[in-house]
Specification:
β24 (412-425) and β25 form a beta hairpin. The chain has ten helices and 26 strands. The longest helix is centred in the N-terminal third of the chain and has 14 residues, at 63-76. By secondary structure, it is α+β, with helices and mostly antiparallel strands. It folds into two domains: 9-61 and 311-464, Alpha-Beta Complex (endopeptidase fold (from Nostoc punctiforme)), CATH 3.90.1720.10; 87-307, no CATH class. The protein has helices spanning 18-26, 46-50, 63-76, 92-102, 120-128, 217-225, 315-323, 341-350, 360-363, 380-388; strands spanning 9-10, 29-30, 59-61, 89-91, 138-140, 142-146, 150-153, 174-178, 183-189, 195-199, 204-208, 212-215, 229-232, 236-238, 252-254, 258-260, 279-287, 293-301, 306-307, 313-314, 370-373, 395-398, 401-409, 412-425, 431-443, 461-464. The protein is globular, with a radius of gyration of 23 Å.
Length: 467
Amino acid sequence: MRIPLLAATVLALAFAGAPLQARAANDALTVPPSGVLGVGEAQLTPTFWIGLQAEPDRVILDRAAIEAQNAKLLQVDPSMHDLRALPKTLSREQVAGWITALSERPDRPLFDVDGQPVPAATLDAMVGNLALGAIPAQQPTRYGLVVRRAALRTFPTALRVFSEKGDTDIDRFQETAEFPGTPVAIVHASADGRWLFVVSPRYAAWTGKENVAEGSAAQVFGYADKTPYRVITGATEHTVFTREQPAVSQLQLDMGARIPLVTDLPPDQPVNGQTPYTAHVLELPLRKADGTLAFTPALLQKNTDTAADYLPLTRANIIRQAFKFLGERYGWGHAYDGRDCSGFVSDVYRSMGVEMPRNTSRQAISPALEHRAFTTKDSREARIAAVQALEVGDLVYIPAHVMMVIGHLHGQPYVIHDTTGMSYRKADGSKARVKLNAVSVTPLLPLLFNDQQSYVERMTSIVRIRP
């Protein structure tokens, strides 16, 4: 049942220009008590949006097409890393290039969690901890597997820093997170020995050494290719508790993770002190005391949200998967055991086997993805025409943000996105600001980028994961 809506209405757009003002008047939306205009209880369910689609279960891209696109992504997108194609030895120039491209000494003021300026001496110490002078002229290429949900950092430090006092959600040293089982190249260590610089398929950054177990290329890539497996199709799932093997007890597994199964254990014998007949027996990487790679079984309940393979890429599945994150707390750089806007859309698509670059800036321009770019030369009319032609699953980019289209309602597109908040014009012309800090459903057209421009006016790209 829909919640009661207030009688107040808002203009759908704050554009200047008579044609768009007319459209805005026609597309006026009501405001519920939440303040999120145009969204009632019905719009917070995937069933509602799936029901608006003509062919929700039609396959958009089959597995072969997806695999071809993923292969192209590794080949042509400079933000991606084909680990299997790395040479047997890495040069100092290559390793130093990865590190210095990321770990550049900040030249702007930064603040700690208490609102105090980060001293220059602290920044200098972090730069020194990069140990750039210790990079050998040549080194064997080493590999490993991520053993737990691992934060990837700008510098080899756990220090959280912020651009503004009191804004402690956006840690400027948090880059992303990698999930258990992710293969990496281990290319350097910090001066204090506590951090590793790793290169994953989608990123290159610092992580705590406890997050990675080192193994041979055969071990690492053999694990990545192993069958059968389970794909995590829920937002997050956790292995069962176990005292016998604490390293894999209640381990968080995020949407899109692909975990091989153990197939050679007796089905009537306990695994980590528990019967396995009600669970999937996963094979998870384990870091031994000396840092090397081992594997161990872990149980994942059969009633968790997983699948024997990646889900078919359909409009219905795009909507269902996106809505599994609805209400999850916004986590910049996959912090707070959650994700941010670009992490959200890439995790949704990964559950259907589609790989994407990690950050919005890379996703929006990836040469491997079909996209339409927008510049200041594009008229408002051209932008509106493009927006009205959006389809389910299309990704709309503005500077530093991305939204996923879930359908059209009231003559305009709606999106689901992981966002800190939304702004729009009220009927009296004043601006409303709603703090969201979560995966949220909103209409697209009313959203304001600033006092003068809407999201549509600042739109930089539309990416389509479809033919």
